[in-house]
Specification:
The protein has 140 residues and is α+β, with helices and mostly antiparallel strands. It has one domain. It is 46% helix and 20% strand. The protein has 6 helices and 6 strands. The strands form 2 sheets. Strands 4-5-1-6 form a 4-stranded antiparallel β-sheet, with no helix packed on it. A two-stranded antiparallel ribbon has the order 2-3. Helix 2 packs antiparallel against helix 4. The longest helix has 20 residues.
């Protein structure tokens, strides 16, 4: 049993990758027309605006975030979750002997995997997307 943690997931999610993954999810939703009158393109434009127009004040100074999503934005957790879902799917589908158990909550992952596969799987998971950097904690 091991625990993986994604390092700084929110601030490292590339906006263009996030938009691409969200667009795929939205396009594949057969109920989209029942939920909104906006097209997939319009939804993506709104999301891009939300993710790219981020400014905040820290100690009286104004800043613009130039990469990733904001940690405390409601849309960031949804976007990060969809991106991580895509990354974990690719990691699990491309490994010959995947973990027996995999459960993720945002950036924390509990895994049951053969000891002999752990190192190779950990390395593979860290190369799926350059922004995803996992740390590992072993169950003693």
């Amino acid at each position: 049993m091991v625990s993986f943690d994604v390092v700084s997931i929110f601030t490292k999610v590339p906006i263009q990758l996030a938009l691409s993954i969200v667009k795929q999810h939205v396009q594949s939703n057969p109920e989209l027309s029942q939920r909104t009158i906006l097209s997939t393109t319009e939804l993506n434009q709104v999301l891009e605006f939300c993710l790219s127009s981020i400014h905040y004040i820290f100690r009286g100074k104004h800043y613009n975030q130039v990469f990733g999503t904001v940690t405390d934005s409601p849309v960031s957790s949804v976007v990060a979750n969809l991106v991580m879902q895509d990354v974990e799917k690719r990691a699990l589908e491309t490994f010959a002997d995947p973990p027996r158990f995999w459960k993720r909550y945002v950036d924390d992952i509990f895994v049951i995997i053969k000891k002999s596969n752990l190192s190779e799987f950990f390395t593979r998971a860290n190369t799926i997307e350059s922004f995803v950097q996992l740390t590992v904690e072993y169950k003693k």
